[in-house]
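Data deposition worksheet. Section B asks for the primary sequence of the deposited chain exactly as it was used as input, without tags or linkers unless they were present during the calculation. Section C holds the resulting structure in token form. Section D is free text for depositor observations; keep each observation to a single sentence. Incomplete worksheets are returned to the depositor.
Section A, Depositor: J.P.
Section B:
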Amino acid sequence: MRYANRICVGVLAVLVAMSFAGCAQRSTDSPASTTSVGVDTQEGSLMNSVRTEFTPKALRAYVEYVYGDEAGRFLGSAVVEGRKTVPIAEVDGAPATAYAITYYCDPAHDVPFDIGMQQGRRYRQMVHVEGCPKLGDSGTVSMAESQLSGATGVTVDAGRGRVLVVVYEIKDDQEN
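Section C:
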């Protein structure tokens, strides 16, 4: 009977480990990865440009394609090495306006980094990323303009890493 219990426990442990391994694999895939299911060739081509060129222009083209009309006016962009506050243009302050930041980290510099909004000396962290996968990683974070009215910049603390950021406004045109 003990032998049967050990076998059942062993099989259960293997199944649990396999399910976690599957989750871990999916969680490391970037939503913009060319290996993801459902990514069209134009989107994959634009992400490859971001990887190879590593310029704000390439990331902006990617954002414009992926988000289309949702991406409003672009407020600022930069390649950040170390810590830097990227100045941004003012948003119009309409009630449904939000700041959006799309970032891409350099896989050659796999270090944690933080991104947040700055208003004078006030700082509000928006995201902490633990590291950069081997193909790089892109993501988008947003925050309602009302949470930090009149923000003056986006601060990126990349430590020894390199992060590419594009900042733009988005508007919620949906009526409730």
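Section D:
The two ends are 62 Å apart (CA to CA).
The beta strands are 74-87, 97-105, 113-119, 122-129, 137-144, 153-171.
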